[in-house]
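Narrative summary of target 7.
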Amino acid sequence: MRKLLNTLFITQSDVYLSLDGDNIVLLKEQEKLARLPLHNLESIVSFGYTGASPALMGYCAKRNISIVFMTMNGSFLARVIGESKGNVVLRKRQYQLSEDEDQSAIIARNFIVGKIFNHKWMIERMTRDYPLRIDVAAFKEVSAQLSNVMQEVRACRDLESLRGWEGQAAYSYNKVFDQMILQQKEVFFFHSRSRRPPLDKVNAMLSFAYTLLANDMAAALESVGLDAYVGFLHRDRPGRASLALDVMEELRGIYADRFVVSMVNKKTIKEEDFLRKENGAVIMTDDGRKKFLSAWQTKKQEKMTHPYLGEKITWGLVPYAQSLLLARYLRGDLDEYPPFLWK
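Modeled conformation, tokenized:
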């Protein structure tokens, strides 16, 4: 199991990244902001890309330290990684199965089963923990709908049909998502998913969390020898880490959605941590991003027992655990890919 090391998040704009010996140096208008050792870093994520020296990128590439560049509102721009050291036999098998839509559907349906199962668990837990604060009947109705869809997905062998069932499950889940927000209801709400751009504070946080999770998943897949850009549910598109989006489907609700709801309900993040741009887009302020990223890193360090492996690991290692299981399935060591089914 890969050790979970640190990620360096650079949230200030106009920061240039350079190398000094075995250290990364952060410069803003020639002023040195920080100097940090690189030997204990796993990745570097920079918001508001200004630049990075070729020396730093070369150093990180040789040592398997990824550098990710994102816009200030959390949209992915690029990821710099070193030479692929993945198992060529494993990748050839991945490419072969990805070209076969029937085989792709068999793999993809387990990602969707995991997603729906975890959404259902979240809904059932809300009815257990907050029966006086939510519409229990509405939650139970959605839970039953998700159970029915899950049965259809388990038997599905067609990608288009699978996407249809996934969309139906997402529609049902989204109908009660707003009720999971129990605090600060006057400013934090969810009516529907808006992406480009996010039009409210909850959607802004969801987009940010999904971007962070996708980056973690892509790094995990590459680390076990898989190609993060060749998926089974999400088909090939230049620049899109399709397999990372595939595997993170089962983690969207249980990992990212719960995290966002928790940030609001615990009042870790507040109204003043957001601003609205002229085009209607809602983004987090610098302070808001820092709060979010600090809590995200803390979440990644929390320990839990993996439902399939039965081992205690941190939440931050879940993407690596699922990547390993997927690689084992593709190699023929497992009869079926075991999705992350949390309870």
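Residues 101-129 form the longest helix (29 residues).
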